[in-house]
Write a structure and sequence with these properties.
The chain is of the alpha/beta class and 232 residues long. It has 6 helices and 7 strands, in the order βαββαβαβαβααβ. α2 (57-67) runs parallel beside α3 (93-112).
């Protein structure tokens, strides 16, 4: 697969850490010019860090104008909200969660359209909780289901550009707590024991899924589960 993105511009929203950082690393190895957009502007080696908050529409539009043609865009931004039961739900939390993961993704597409290549790909990020139900997951479940649905609608609306969604299971990133903390280690061990593959995912394994959706030109409107069998 080395060089399959040669000469193409890849924009990663949320590219400073976790899955987004790994996608940026992977895309660089495939020859792409990679632009990692985040509040910090941090980026992997050989990628260009772009400092912009995805919820700042003006800053994001300016960033896209500066980048120029976008061949592939992946949105990996989200808000860590935990498993909060409705009775304890902070009134501002649902709106903040939807802004970070859904609304900012939709507006990113809107703002990128003037520079989005005619055969470009866009990949959103949802999560298995959209179809895995449990107490305390109402906001996360509804949010991720909305992302899945938005991706499929946009696959029709933006055609022939392709739009897909990656739906991760539990991946070993800071989303699940501080590295090395007892709480994170306990959660990772518990989830690992419940999965058919016997462990949680790694960011680089998710990155491979995003790159696959970028380069396979016959896939659109798909929600790709990368969850170690978590939905089984």
């Amino acid at each position: 697969m080395v060089g399959v993105l040669e000469g193409q511009n890849v924009v990663i929203l949320g590219g400073s850490s976790g899955i987004g950082f790994s996608i940026a690393e992977f895309a660089v190895k495939q020859g792409a010019a990679v632009f990692a957009v985040s509040r910090s502007g941090h980026a992997p080696a050989s990628a260009t860090g772009v400092k912009a908050n995805v919820s700042d529409r003006r800053a994001l539009s300016a960033a896209f104008d500066e980048i120029g043609r976008i061949d592939h865009m992946a949105h990996t931004v989200g808000l860590r909200i935990g498993s909060t039961p409705v009775v304890a739900l902070d009134e501002a939390l649902p709106a903040a969660a939807f802004e970070a993961k859904l609304f900012s993704a939709l507006h990113a597409v809107r703002l990128a359209l003037p520079v989005l290549a005619p055969n470009a790909s866009v990949t959103f990020t949802s999560g298995q909780v959209s179809r895995k139900y449990g107490a305390g997951s109402a906001v996360k479940g509804a949010l991720n289901a909305a992302v899945d649905t938005a991706g499929r609608h946009l696959a029709k609306e933006l055609a022939p550009r392709r739009v897909n969604v990656v739906s991760p299971g539990v991946v070993d990133t800071s989303l699940w707590g501080e590295p090395g903390s007892d709480a994170r280690n306990a959660l990772i061990a518990r989830v690992s024991s419940s999965l058919p593959v016997g462990r949680v995912g790694r960011p680089e394994e998710l990155a491979q899924a995003y790159i696959f959706l970028m380069i396979n030109k016959f896939i659109t409107g798909t929600v790709l589960d990368v969850d170690g069998g978590g939905l089984l």
